[in-house]
Amino acid sequence: MKGILTMSLRELDRLKIVAQVESNKLTISEAAELLKISERQTFRIIKKIKTEGSKGIIHKLRGRKSNRGYSEEFKKKIIGLYRKQYEDYGPTLFSEMLIKYHKLSIPHETVRLWLRDNAITTSIRKKRPHRKKRERRSCFGELLQFDGSHHDWFEGRGAECCLLNCVDDATGTEYIKFGISENTQDAMLTMWEYINKYGIPRSIYTDYGSVYYAEGTLTDFGRAMKQLNIETIFANSPQAKGRVERSNRTLQDRLVKALRREGISNIAAANKYLQKSFIAEYNERFAVNENLTDVHRATEGYNLQEIFCYKTERQVRNDFTINLAGGYIQLLNGQSPLPRPKQNVTVSKWFDGQMHIYFNDQELDYKKLKGKPGKKGYKLHTVPKDHPWRKMNQKISDDKQRNYFRAALG
């Protein structure tokens, strides 16, 4: 509207100082010092006000578009692209996709403003209660946070599954793998692959899930960690292992969209894609790129295939057999001496289907039996039909029958 001037507080202050200069209450040097500008600039401002009036104090670019701004046509193109292909993306991820797939570099805050101007609201993070921040560990491999994330990763295109996530506490470096669920085998296979890639971490941080914790005993996962001399720490709440929980939320956004772009709908293809490109790109984007000391231990001296497996103990019977899963296994004489009856042997079932039996860390030979083993050293005798024992039992049976009928007939 004509006749209305919009000024900032800074411009109003300048106008008051210039008025005091014109009324000879301040000198040019005093005004320049108050305005934090040079005397030459002060003369320029006074001259503009004399020639243009009060509006001379306002910056000439006020209300005009920046010469470095984007055109309206270009903005409409970006908004149309968002609505067509990326309608559930946040501004940050959308700006990354523009660079990667469309060769368009636009700051994510600029994208956010454009979306808001077009009444497009993106997801707003819920305000969470404040918790005291725990400082990161100082070395790479000092603490590994481990968790499983159950989610509809394929958005209905495939069966539901679980993402097993390993996050280094110091650097945020991640190793992820899809499994059918958060079960013992998939958890141990994920740890096995992590150790093959980076080495053995000093400690691991997990929750109290049944895969990791059992009161009064060790689970197979816990036993494997103990054999590798990895300290297991249990979190009392999801917030305690916040680094891996926040990572899960980020992956539930970025990884879901990446699997959609690649047209992936099964676990095998998803794990192949993770190894091929996603893990490296994700770590490059989010991991802390600092030269931290690597304290992972080497795997020399460890048989990882023997550690990452199912193990159970069975008692040896008098006939040197053991019972396993409803079947029977015969222990055989070989290079290793057999245990005595009532002693325990360790049965290891590897993930490739092989089974190994150990006693005092020495492997035993064995064979699986098709049925229950017969008793050895015993001969069964059949009592003849005319044996007095049979006649006596027959007489007792006949007497009972006669007494029954007498009682029934009164």
Query: What is the C-level CATH assignment of the largest domain?
Result: Alpha Beta
- The domain count comes to 4
Sum up the overall morphology in one term.
elongated
Total number of beta strands: 11
**Strand line-up across the major sheet:** 6-9-10-11-8-7
Number of helices: 12
Largest sheet: 6 strands, antiparallel
Assembly annotation: single chain
List segments where confidence is low: pLDDT < 50 over at least 5 consecutive residues. Answer: none
Task: List the helices and strands in order.
Answer: HHHHHHEEEHEHEHHHEEEEEEH
The helix/strand class is alpha+beta
Q: Can you put this structure into words, describing what you see?
A:
This protein is of the alpha+beta class and about 400 residues long. It folds into 4 domains: about 50 residues; about 45 residues; about 140 residues, Ribonuclease H-like superfamily/Ribonuclease H (Nucleotidyltransferase, domain 5, 2-Layer Sandwich); about 100 residues, no CATH class. A hairpin with a 5-residue loop joins strand 9 and strand 10. The termini are far apart.
